[in-house]
Design brief:
mainly alpha, elongated
């Protein structure tokens, strides 16, 4: 019989590697002078970076409680496979517009949220309550940031266009934000769904 705690370890390491990689990209964005012209974007990046630091610390602490070797070794083994997709998104050399950097952040956060969804389900299925709880808590932390990006990006795009000399109608920025938010509102999301409470297994 396989040890469920040992089985789940690589998945926890995957998440630690993903979030650390995103954190490194955010720290580079913080140092990018271009962001200084966009205080709302810079503030977003800094708040998200602070959150991800706590996530990485929590994941690595949890990883240390699971059997299967050192934390450093486990995380190193996951970097190539898990971060292959993110490597193309976060090019360390490339210097993009702030809107494109935020687009990359959105892509990375989408990967993180779906990965946490997978980790939460895996934790539940393997009766690893602590892992399931951490995954769900971190997922709940990240989803508001994804929604906030939907509000920030239209404003940033219009401001960049104005910097390039175009005649921009900034009064339409709220309309762009509302349209984006409306696109995410489906009938099923508007309906109240009464779900059964999650019962985490004893650990």
């Amino acid at each position: 019989m396989k040890d469920n705690r040992e089985e789940i370890r690589p998945y926890v390491a995957d998440m630690a590697a993903v979030e650390r990689h995103i954190l490194e990209a955010l720290e580079r964005q913080h140092k990018d002078d271009t962001f200084k012209d966009f205080p709302n974007a810079l503030g977003f990046v800094d708040r998200l970076a602070t959150l991800l630091k706590t996530h990485v610390e929590a994941l690595e602490t949890h990883l240390g409680s699971l059997p299967g070797g050192s934390v450093a070794a486990t995380v190193k083994e996951t970097v190539t496979g898990v971060l292959g997709g993110l490597a193309g998104v976060y090019d360390k050399v490339r210097k993009d517009k702030v809107s494109r950097a935020l687009r990359d952040d959105y892509t990375a956060l989408s990967l993180a949220t779906v990965s946490y969804t997978l980790l939460h389900a895996t934790g539940l299925g393997l009766h690893q309550g602590t892992t399931a709880e951490i995954a769900l808590r971190h997922l709940q932390d990240l989803t508001p940031f994804v929604m906030e990006l939907n509000q920030i990006i239209p404003q940033v795009v219009l401001k960049e266009l104005s910097f390039e000399g175009y005649d921009v109608d900034f009064s339409l920025s709220p309309q762009a934000v509302r349209a984006t938010q409306e696109a995410w509102r489906t009938e099923s999301a508007r309906e109240e769904v009464a779900g059964a409470p999650v019962n985490y297994p004893a650990r």
